[in-house]
Amino acid sequence: MKGIFLCSLCLLLFAASIWANASDQDLLISDGESSSGEVNETALVLALAGEPSGELTREEVDGLLFMIEEEKLAGDVYSALDEMWDMRVFENIGRAELTHQAAVKRLLDRYSLPDPRMGEDEFANETLGEPSPGFCQ
Which residues contact 33 (CB under 8 A, 6 or more apart)? Predict the structure, then answer.
């Protein structure tokens, strides 16, 4: 079950990134030209409806907690790149990261797990909070 769950989640996140780029109106609320970054909860609930539920292993719990923070980190990076370079590609990927976070948050809620996300540049997972050697600050 663990393998099926993780595989399904990976496929869901991959599909969410495609949807975010191909059709924002499915998972992100849009005014036709751009997205506010708000997630269409109804579409997200429908997308996750087929995911298995039940007891999670410690590895699955740890995976979900890591995954939401990793998506937050990716969103922070693309948001910073968008501010620096003002290129639509960074804005689009940033919106996709918001969708990924919302999908994982929905799973955290489903399994009554706490949301470990903290403020900007703050992470419960120490590995994600450490700056990479040689990374420009």
Answer: none
